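Self-study notes.
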Amino acid sequence: MAYYRPPGPPPDPALVRSLTQQQHDMRQRVRHEPLPHEPRLIAGCDSSFPTPDTILSVFVVLKFPSLELVEKVYNYGPVDMPYVPGFLSFREAPNVIHAFAKLEHKPDVIMVDGHGIAHPRRMGIAAHLGVLLDMPTFGVAKQKLTGIFQEPGIERGNISELLDAKTGELIGEVIRSKDKVLPLFVSPGHRCDQATATRLTLACLRGYKLPEPTRLADHWAEQFKKILP
């Protein structure tokens, strides 16, 4: 996800309390479990903010394991919620759900450009979307949001654990997706477990840093931006 971080006054404390409670309630609904069957279709999801007041959300659907592109859709709309650090999912989710509704081919699992439970309150955008859609989701992020880890080996396929700094809880895995490039941070969202998230991420690598579902979602976002009003 490409985030817009506008300057401005601190957020309303009452809004922060409300969003925190909503995340707590949603967290109680998160389940981590293997997929019921090997996916036939895998989606990639990406959002960006072309302007401070608008959001573009893109879904691509690929066959698995061939990763042949089946479908691509987008939704472009206004952003209704102010920027509040740690609660970006609330800015993104409504538009992402509108984009998802346009899909003619419903995927078995969604790879989201962002975090799953590797979030201070365990409710990154992948977990948030998974709960709202009741779909298997996991997050593949380019930057760490929280946790500690040992740098994985420099060759593609090396993995290390992402741990909660206070409890030592496993909240994700750090994956070297290409030789000598910065690693990815992979964590389960909802109705998916860490082993599945890591396995699917590795299975979707095709020589780039990003796995194909999110790489293509990002690619098509750039194409769709050219035709926005």
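Second protein, same conventions, sequence then structure:
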Amino acid sequence: MGEFVRLDVEDGIGTIRLDRPPMNALNLTVQTELSEAAAEAGSRDDIAAVIVYGGEKVFAAGADIKQMQAMSYVDMARASHGLQDFTRALAGIPKPTVAAITGYALGGGCEVALACDFRIAAEDATLGQPEMLLGIIPGAGGTQRLARLVGPAKAKDLVFSGRFVKAAEALAIGLVDEVVPADQVYAVARERMSRYVGGASLALRAAKEAIDRGLDTDLGTGLEIERMLFSALFATEDRSAGMTSFVERGPGKATFCGR
């Protein structure tokens, strides 16, 4: 447990909880603690899926601008690798992840949400990449992950303008996957992640890796990544259990051990 970020585990689901009132601003300490929580969540066998959650009022309202204001080019050139490292760590969790978004997910907060596999937003949530209004651009993955998620034209609209997006529009453009009443965000996120508890964890890891790595390359290379990961799963006990169960009892009845 860090000063501002903790990892709670219940019933196979890990919750990475941001807790830096009032707005969960992502200072260097929060960034480091998010990286540490992501690494722990990825390595623990008792965690099948992960929720990133900022609490009932706000997800994360961006970077700590007061901390950044006095930084020079040299300062930021040195710090910028760390700025991307914490969202890379979240995106690299080898398990299904979902951002449970309440209140604001702006700037770095939106980039944290983009680093997750899924995004569930409250009906009154607000998302956006307003860095342009500060004379900069997103620096923790926003220009890259946003364009891959919603397409280049919509990403350029949001990044060029810096405008805020309400939950309904975010759903319409594919920025979030589901919009629910604010008091149900975390519960719905848990329900979504619960479907992976007890699942074939090695196959889930392989599927996530194949999709994410494939998006970063050409089709032929992506197909080769898929082929290698597919073949590797035939060395696992889960593959044997899954296929044996299917042949003997039909689909959906296998018990997996994660080996």
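Instructor comment on the second fold: The first strand starts at residue 5 and ends at 10.
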